[in-house]
Design brief:
The structure is a single chain. The chain is mainly alpha-helical. The chain has one domain. The protein is built from 3 helices and 2 strands. Strand 1 and strand 2 form a beta hairpin. Helix 1 runs antiparallel to helix 3.
């Protein structure tokens, strides 16, 4: 049995920062750009009887932010498994929940 490869901290954090920057860029583009800059073209469409540009400015960016939180958690978990730094029963056995 060969020993596990050493954990490459720099590569792990580089990938983590890249993921966060991409998700923040998506949020920044969808929120302000679609809700302010592109409001007139988007208002040609409606969502539930409300102009889509207005909806994006008021609700869409918030919903997208919540979705991106879950996407970030899922991608972070995948990266943790890829680098073998994920939580297991053995690594969390010292944590006790109060009863």
């Amino acid at each position: 049995m060969s020993p596990e490869p050493a954990f490459d901290r720099r590569r792990y954090w580089r990938r983590t920062v890249q993921r966060i920057l991409v998700l923040v860029a998506i949020w920044a583009i969808v929120g302000p750009v679609m809700g302010i800059v592109l409001v007139r073209p988007l208002n040609q469409f409606s969502l539930g009887g409300v102009p889509f540009g207005f909806w994006m400015a008021q609700q869409g960016a918030i919903y997208l932010f919540v979705v991106l939180i879950f996407v970030n958690a899922w991608l972070a978990d995948r990266l943790d498994h890829e680098f073998n730094v994920h939580e297991t029963a053995e690594t969390t056995q010292h944590v006790q929940t109060p009863h």
